Structures are given as C-alpha cells and as structure tokens.
C-alpha cells in the first residue's frame, strides 16, 4: 500500500492525543496512581507494606496476561473490538475497588485492571504506529507516551489533593470518575483510524518473519532488564521516602511529583535524541542514566538519593519503551502489533517479578532501600545486552538478516 504523506496537522495531533489519553487512563489512573496511594493506604490500615507489594504483583501479573492476550489477538480488526472493551474493564474495576477493603477483592480487582492495562498499552500505540508508518510519520510515534507522563502528574495531583478528604477505598474515587470521560473520548477516536488489516506479500498471503532471532533476542533480554530495573522505584519510591524521611517532609509527596514532571517531556526528548544520534545509541545512554538513578537511591543518603532517583528514572523509563519498540519494529517491520505485544509481555513479566522479589526480601528481614539493588543489577544486565543488538540497517543488509 502506498504511504500517505498529506496528513493534516490537526488530524495527526488528534490521533496522538487520543493515544496519549488512553495511556493516561490505564497507566496514570490505573497502574501508577497506586504508587502515591500506597503510603496512604498503609497508613489507613487497609493493608501492610508487604501486602501492598503483593497487590502490586497481582496488578503486574494481570498486565503480563493482558499483553500475552494481545500477542494472540493482534490483528487490526481485533484491536478495534478489544480496545474499547479493555478500557471499559479499566473503568469498572476502578469503580469496584472504591467499594471494598477486603484484600482478596482488592487483589482481584487490581489483577483484572492489569489485564486491561496490558492490552491497551499494546493495542493503542501499535495501532497508532501502523497508522503513522502508512503516512511516513513513524518518527512521531514516541509522542503518544507523553500520556503516561501526564498520567503520573494527574495521579500525583489527585492523590495529594484528596489526601485529607478521603480514606481507605474511597481514595480511588477521583481516578474512577476521571477515567470515564477520558476513556470514552480516546476509544471513539482510535477505533475509527484508517489502518489496513494485515501486511500481505505479492501472493496475497500475510507477511510473516521470525519473532526471535540473533538480532531480536538481545533486544528482548535488554528490555527484560529494563522492566525489572525501573519498576522498583516506580512502585516503592514514595514508600521509601516515607520510611527514610521525617513526617511532613516535602519529599513524601514530592518524589512522585518530580517523577511525574520529568516524565512529561521525556518522550519528546528521547524521540528527538533517537532521531539525531540513532535509536540504538540513544538506548545505550538511556540505560546508563536510568541505572545511575536507581543506584543513587541505594548509596546516597536521605533526600539526595531520592531526588536523583526521581529525576533520572523519571526522565528515562519512557524513553526505554519508545526506543526499544521502534528498534524492534525496524528489525522486523512486518511484525507490527505482535512484536509490540511480545515485548510488553516480557516487560510485564519482569515488572511482576520486581514487587514479588521485594516482598520476599522484606518478609526475610531485608530493607526497602537494599531491595533497590535488585533494580541496579537488572539495569546493568539490560545495558550489557543493548551492545549485542545490531543496527537495523546493518542487520537487513547482512546475508543472515536477509534470510531471516
């Protein structure tokens, strides 16, 4: 199919905004609002810190399962059906969690919310990327992740602004109510996108390539390290601030606000940097900065390490996502949403492992700050494997790449 190059700026903005909005809903108001909520829910007596880690693990398990379902249902017509269904599940489960303090019901609701999150996080960006590629605008794809950064900022404001007004399960009401109109608007616009159903070869059959080969395996392994490395501060940083700092310290809520503010421009920064120096070079720099951020929380005292962790992780983790997704599609241009789903599934698995390992560490008598060392090791692992990923143009030019 011939690429379309005359997309009006207003249409481009609307599509990217719709994608950003649905990611704001499922990631900001679904997943990551739990991070600033966690210290309040522990203080309210809803559950302990260890139980809170277990709830997070259930949510990440759901995220993994949602991404795996997206591997199975990755065709455009399936995405058009499942995207609004997943957003509806997000709304229903967020409303449900406002009604219970039962740990089992909370865990079940967060698990199902994670399933919806995983599917939307695969389907929405993948659908938009295919739409952009058709119009020679793939370099804009990373901008959709601005919605995650805005979601972090919105979640921080909702939690802090309602902290003295709500308690226990009621603390989820702001997220539930805001999700309804945003999910509705985003879904309506995305399901109408003009995207062909499948890529086909000259015989009319769907085009396929191997998902795993010598080029993509190290990319998958590096992405696994990124998932485990970033999820610890993104789940437990405010709780770590609560444990290390005196009552009333501005960083008790401030760490999450710093992360949120840094995350908003991050997709634009890494989008531009990837275009300037190459996505692969930008990814190596991204891993290094992120590693230093998590390390700062382990080795530097009190507020200094917390601020550096919030700054450096907030500025990088979305860059890891958008750069890796673009490199993967460049290596396997006909995989499209299926490749994205596989990467998110792997990312989701390592994110699930992070809170689970933290719970085992805490139950065994370890400290939360020392548990962040797991994240440091994971990011170092990921950084090493980035150096084994070939540049897509070199891979396709080689005889092995051409025959894969």
Automatic annotation (TrEMBL):
Q: Where in the cell is it found?
A: Membrane
Q: How does it sit in the membrane?
A: Multi-pass membrane protein
Q: Does the keyword Transmembrane apply?
A: yes
Query: Where exactly are the transmembrane stretches of this chain?
Result: 12-34, 54-74, 81-99, 111-134, 143-166, 172-191, 220-241, 247-270, 282-299, 305-324, 336-357, 369-389
Q: Which UniProt keywords apply?
A: Membrane, Transmembrane, Transmembrane helix
Please list which residues make up the signal peptide. Answer: none
Q: What is this protein called?
A: YbfB/YjiJ family MFS transporter
Species per Swiss-Prot/TrEMBL record: Marinobacter koreensis
Q: Give the organism's phylogenetic lineage.
A: Bacteria, Pseudomonadati, Pseudomonadota, Gammaproteobacteria, Pseudomonadales
């Amino acid at each position: 199919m011939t690429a379309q190059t005359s997309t009006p700026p207003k249409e481009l903005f609307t599509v990217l905004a719709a994608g950003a909005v649905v990611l704001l809903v499922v990631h900001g108001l679904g997943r990551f609002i739990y991070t600033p909520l966690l210290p309040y829910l522990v203080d309210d007596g809803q559950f302990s810190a260890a139980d809170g880690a277990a709830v997070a693990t259930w949510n990440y398990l759901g995220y993994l399962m949602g991404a795996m379902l997206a591997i199975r249902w990755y065709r455009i017509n399936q995405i058009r059906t499942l995207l609004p269904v997943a957003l509806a599940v997000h709304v229903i489960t967020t409303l449900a969690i406002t009604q219970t303090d039962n740990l089992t019901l909370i865990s079940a609701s967060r698990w199902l919310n994670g399933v919806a999150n995983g599917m939307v996080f695969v389907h929405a960006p993948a659908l938009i990327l295919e739409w952009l590629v058709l119009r020679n605008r793939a370099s804009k794809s990373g901008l959709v992740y601005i919605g995650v950064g805005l979601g972090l900022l919105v979640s921080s404001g909702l939690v802090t602004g309602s902290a003295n007004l709500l308690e226990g399960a009621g603390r989820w009401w702001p997220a539930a109510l805001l999700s309804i109109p945003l999910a509705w608007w985003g879904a309506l616009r995305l399901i109408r996108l003009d995207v062909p159903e499948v890529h086909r070869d000259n015989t009319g059959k769907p085009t396929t390539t191997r998902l795993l080969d010598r080029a993509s395996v190290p990319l998958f392994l590096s992405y696994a390290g990124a998932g485990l490395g970033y999820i610890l501060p993104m789940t437990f940083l405010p709780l770590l601030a609560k444990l290390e700092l005196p009552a009333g310290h501005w960083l008790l809520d401030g760490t999450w606000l710093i992360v949120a503010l840094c995350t908003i421009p991050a997709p634009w920064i890494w989008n531009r940097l990837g275009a300037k120096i190459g996505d692969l070079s930008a990814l190596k720099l991204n891993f290094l900065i992120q590693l230093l951020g998590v390390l700062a929380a382990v080795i530097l005292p009190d507020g200094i390490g917390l601020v550096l962790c919030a700054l450096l992780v907030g500025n990088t983790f979305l860059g890891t996502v958008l750069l890796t997704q673009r490199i993967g599609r460049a290596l396997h241009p006909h995989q499209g949403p299926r490749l994205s789903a596989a990467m998110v599934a792997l990312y989701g698995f390592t994110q699930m492992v992070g809170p689970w390992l933290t719970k085992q560490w805490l139950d065994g008598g370890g400290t939360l700050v020392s548990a962040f060392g797991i994240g440091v090791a994971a990011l170092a692992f990921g950084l090493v494997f980035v150096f084994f990923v070939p540049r897509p143009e070199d891979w396709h030019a080689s005889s092995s790449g051409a025959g894969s």
